[in-house]
Design brief:
heterotrimer, A mainly alpha (400), B mainly alpha (318), C alpha/beta (266), A: 400 residues, mainly alpha, ABC transporter involved in vitamin B12 uptake, BtuC, 2 domains, B: mainly alpha, 13 helices, globular
């Protein structure tokens, strides 16, 4: 494999077939990421796990039905109809167990996922013994195989995924409303149940059309991982949806390309690993909610508190109890190794004492304002309150 | 097909033992997972086991069980820590955090498996998903009477002895720490304020779950372990309001599922004139699900049908 | 607007030796992520007489209790119970969490739950024995629930569940109790039972610190009050501290007129 070959694949120049498969996988990723955002916000992430595993017996039944009708067992539309039917059964079973028995939703999901999957495996083991051809192709539904996809299959998948994207965009406002505040939406006259149903239908559609490319075990990754990654970048829903769709598309596209270049690579696995890499980058480095940014913020906050508390102890002539405070003050040269305040330490301590007294006075004299402002007194008082008020507070502190 | 004693002892007995032990060890732990609304931790861990086993295999260079076991246990623990970290650091709901971690790690396992050619050796995705109950062979017994000979028992297949040891550890841990597991499951805050750190107990539970999942992985594969964690406990949950009784009932349900599933898969098709047996691990999950469905429908107090009947009678008489 | 300065906890209560203070909190700051919930809380609880923690929703009342117990991490601050760090005083502390914090469908009987109060003294690995069950039964009897000992907890009414929690706290045999809204949503009988227990604990010289949401009844059940809204608004004896002015500060001026009127008559 040369670099030229890599670029040919990536730039859709490696034959029409590969191009269609790549476009289809990218569209699938975009659809999964987009619908995944709502699934995540509706706290249904793992319901999709139950749905995807529940499609296996449907695939097997679809195969048996196709053979029974005298068709090729690998007839994709029939297999997908079968998958969708047992997928729906799986959703209904989860809801029935959750609503009608004392068992909680997570147990319902686990039950449906494993029992349906078990039934699928039993059916597959039956199919393996049949005297018809094409059984081997069924295995690709477990972990996916983009390279072996026919042009018609890829067009079907890409087209259906595009449809999912369009419907999700059309229903964006309704989905957002239901995710944000279902009770409010219900009170406002929206049929929450129906909107939920559309959402679940789109989720089911993504799972079913993703079976061939990504495989049923990993398709839920495409629904969960890109939205979670997107969550780290923004607090706004439309941006999050856009980011999730982009992440999903990139995962589908790159994963399918890798699988086309290296035949031994299972497409589903690679697609999910690409999504996983995007997730790790987001988790660590996203500026809005990423771990690194958060850690820096938390550390600054913690050190500001420690510094203030340490300085107040210095001002009061007490020992500094908090080891972090001691560390911070030492690092800033405010106390020496024996914990004695330095010159600048004494000045800073006096300033901290003044801040504390002024804030206390302010809270005592203007309690309603202080509570309403939720002024947490880490900010310097001169920067927050007008100068004449600070001067007035200074006078009152001096007088008391 | 004629079932000979020898065949039964060589093929079916070891498989039955593995199935029942896997079901019982996972089923017992499942009680605490279901009660703590952590059923899906079992789901996550059973997926996490795969990359660990593959990495263990790659490091050891051969199918060396100890390395694979250690790898799997390590992967499960790393995965659970990652889930916890993502949940806390990213403020992500635990279900989604789980979904991210276990799918990505499972994908890594699949890719590693296919890339390194371990697929050629004894370890492949199908095995990982379905288990290999049928290939658990015990060739030493020569007849019923030979089972009285301790030397024969010493040659039990490795899968079975591992499962037996894990089951013993699980039972011992539950007996010894019954009180601690109970209070942490019911009221973790109170437990912590009394000095039974909920975090410590939960960590111990996760280690046990990972151990049971790894041991059962060989027998029933990664997905069906989930059925063993959840179905017996859920079945028992429908039938009783006492924890001790729930534990016993879950053992009963697990045993029934293990035996019933294996028998149906191995012999069922022949009763209906078929010629080939079906996948036993899958059938065990189906039987476990059927038992749970029966309990959900018919449990005297909490079953759906008795409750419906009682409501109907109240309406009819009142 | 200027109001009269509020008496602070330390000046209002009679001076006490550190070791006699049931609870003393200094510089407690708690934040979820980096948003502070409690800021710089200094509070020293007087011995004798139950204490109510009062404040609006989101004021950090439950967080205060949970931080004191070490259930949420403290960003800074020091908590002492009877003069020693709280971590070393687990045996001296009892805790009644909010009723909604547990799964009442859990397979346990009322007696099982009360026996959990004894676990701290039973210790790791040792099982619950018959004498523990007898003890638990006696505590159930104290709250008038002995006849429900074998009942699955989910089949009890809300008030009965609260009484089970109370019996469990009694089983803890602590010197200092924290209760998180025990009066929330209970029937009249349970309210009387809780009040009786509070009085009994007080008589035995045990201190109760209680998150309380009902401004109307606060003066009936509690002798001291800690008004909280992110920080300490005021603390001290009920008569001098539970004033309209202080309440208005604590509730950020959002207090409805009728509630203010109730407080004034108290």
């Amino acid at each position: 494999m040369t670099l030229a070959e890599v670029f040919d694949v990536l730039l859709f120049r490696a034959g029409f077939n590969t191009a269609v498969v790549l476009a289809g996988a990218a569209m699938l990723g975009a659809g999964a990421g987009l619908i995944g955002v709502f699934v995540l916000l509706r706290r249904r992430a793992l319901v999709s796990d139950a749905i995807s595993h529940a499609t296996l017996p449907g695939v097997a039944l679809g195969f048996l039905a196709a053979v029974g009708l005298g068709l090729d067992g690998r007839n994709l539309p029939i297999l997908l109809v079968g998958a969708a039917s047992t997928g729906i059964l799986g959703i209904l079973a989860v809801q029935w167990i959750r609503d009608r028995t004392r068992l909680p939703e997570d147990a319902a999901i686990g039950t449906v996922l494993s029992v349906f999957f078990g039934a699928g495996i039993v059916l597959l083991s039956h199919i393996q013994t049949l005297a018809v051809g094409g059984q081997a192709g069924l295995d690709t539904f477990l972990i996916g195989q983009a390279a072996a996809m026919s042009r018609a299959d890829a067009l079907l998948i890409g087209g259906a995924a595009a449809l999912v994207v369009l419907i999700a965009l059309a229903a964006f406002k309704e989905f957002a409303l239901v995710c944000f505040d279902p009770d409010f939406a219900g009170a406002g006259g929206w049929r929450v149940g129906r909107i939920d149903l559309v959402m679940l239908a789109l989720l089911l559609a993504v799972v079913v059309i993703g079976l061939k490319t990504v495989g049923l075990i990993l398709i839920i990754a495409l629904v969960i991982v890109p939205p979670v990654a997107a969550r780290f970048w923004t607090e706004r829903l439309n941006r999050m949806a856009l980011a999730a769709a982009l992440f999903g598309a990139a995962s589908g596209y790159l994963g399918a390309a890798a699988s086309a270049l290296l035949p031994r690579l299972p497409a589903g696995g690679v697609i999910v690993l690409v999504a996983g890499a995007l997730f790790v980058v987001s988790l660590l480095f996203a500026p809005a909610r990423g771990v690194l940014a958060g850690a820096v913020r938390r550390l600054r906050f913690r050190m500001a508190i420690a510094r203030r508390q340490g300085l107040l102890a210095v001002a009061g002539g007490e020992a500094i109890a908090d080891p972090i405070a001691r560390l911070v003050l030492r690092r800033n040269g405010l106390i020496d190794r024996q914990d004695r305040p330095t010159e600048s330490g004494r000045t800073a301590a006096a300033a901290a004492r003044r801040e504390q007294r002024l804030w206390r006075r302010y809270r005592a004299d203007y309690p309603t304002d202080a509570i309403a402002d939720r002024e947490w007194s880490l900010a310097p008082i001169d920067a927050v309150l007008p100068a004449d008020l600070v001067a007035e507070l200074e006078r009152r502190v001096a007088a008391s | 097909m004629i079932l000979t004693v020898e065949d039964f002892l060589h093929i079916d007995l070891p498989a039955l033992m593995a199935a029942v032990l896997a079901a019982v060890s996972c089923g017992l732990l499942g009680n605490f997972l279901v009660l703590r609304r952590q059923a899906l931790i079992g789901d996550a861990i059973s997926h996490l086991v795969l990359p660990g086993i593959v990495v263990g295999f790659l490091i050891a260079g051969e199918v060396l069980t100890v390395a694979m076991m250690a790898g799997a246990l390590g992967a499960a623990l790393v995965g659970v820590l990652l889930i916890e970290a993502i949940r806390r650091l990213g403020g992500i709901e635990s279900g989604a955090a789980m979904g991210v971690v276990f799918t990505v790690m499972f994908a890594a396992g699949v890719v590693l498996l296919e890339q390194t050619g371990s697929a050629a050796v004894h370890l492949d995705v199908e095995h990982a998903l379905y288990g290999a109950l049928e290939t658990t062979l015990w060739l030493t017994p020569t007849g019923w009477e030979s089972l009285a000979d301790p030397a024969v028992w010493a040659t039990l297949p490795r899968e079975v002895t591992t499962l037996a040891a894990v089951t013993a550890i699980v039972v011992a841990a539950i007996v010894l720490f019954y009180k601690e597991l109970k209070i942490v499951a019911f009221d973790p805050d109170l437990a912590t304020s009394l000095g039974f750190s909920a975090r410590t107990v939960s960590a111990g539970l996760v280690v046990l779950v990972a151990m049971a999942a790894v041991a059962a992985f060989d027998a029933v594969g990664s997905i069906l372990v989930i059925a063993m964690f959840i179905c017996p406990a859920s079945t028992a949950r429908m039938l009783t309001d006492r924890l001790s009784r729930q534990l016993l009932l879950s053992v009963l349900a697990a045993t029934l599922a293990g035996i019933g599933g294996y028998v149906l898969a191995a012999f069922g098709p022949f009763w209906f004139g078929g010629e080939n047996s079906l996948n036993a691990a899958g059938m065990i999950a189906v039987v476990a699900g059927a038992l749970q469905t029966l309990a959900m429908l018919l449990a005297p107090r909490y079953g759906v049908l008795p409750r419906m009947f009682r409501r109907w009678r109240i309406r009819a008489t009142g | 607007m200027l109001t009269t300065p509020q008496p602070s906890a330390t000046t209002a209560a009679a001076p006490l030796a550190e070791a006699d203070r049931p609870l003393s909190v200094r510089g407690l700051t708690v934040a979820y992520h980096h948003k502070p919930v409690l800021w710089d809380v200094d509070y020293s609880a007087p011995a004798g007489g139950p204490i109510a923690i009062v404040g609006p929703n989101g004021a950090g009342k439950s967080t205060f209790i949970r931080a004191v117990l070490g259930l949420v991490p403290r960003l800074s601050g020091e908590v002492r119970v009877f003069g020693r760090p709280v971590e070393r005083q687990r045996r001296a502390i009892g805790y009644v969490p909010q009723r909604s914090s547990v799964d009442w469908d859990f397979p346990a009987s009322a007696l099982d739950v009360v026996a959990m109060g004894l676990y701290g003294r039973i210790g790791w690995l040792r099982p619950v024995r018959n004498r523990h069950r007898e003890q638990a039964l006696a505590h159930l009897d104290q709250v008038g629930m002995a006849e429900f000992a074998g009942r699955q907890i989910g089949q009890l009414s809300g008030g009965q569940q609260q009484r089970v929690f109370l019996a469990r706290a009694l089983a803890q045999d602590a010197r200092l109790y924290f209760m998180d809204e025990p009066f929330a949503g209970v029937d009249a009988a349970t309210e009387r039972a809780i009040a009786k227990v509070l009085a009994e604990l007080d008589r035995q010289g045990r201190t109760v610190v209680c998150v309380h949401h009902d401004l109307q009844t606060a003066p009936d059940y509690f002798r001291h009050v800690l008004l909280l809204n992110g920080r300490v608004v005021a603390a001290g004896p009920m008569e001098t501290t539970f004033t309209v002015a202080n309440l208005q500060v604590a509730y950020g001026g959002l207090l409805a007129a009728e509630l203010a009127a109730t407080a004034a008559t108290a």
